[in-house]
Amino acid sequence: MPRKALIQIRRGVEANIGQLALGEMGFCTDTKKLYIGFDSGNVLLVAAQTAGDMLKSIYDTDNDGKVDIAEVAESVSWTGITGKPELMSKGPLTWNQLKGV
Question: For residue 56, which of 39, 44, 71 has the smallest C-alpha distance?
Answer without folding.
Answer: 44
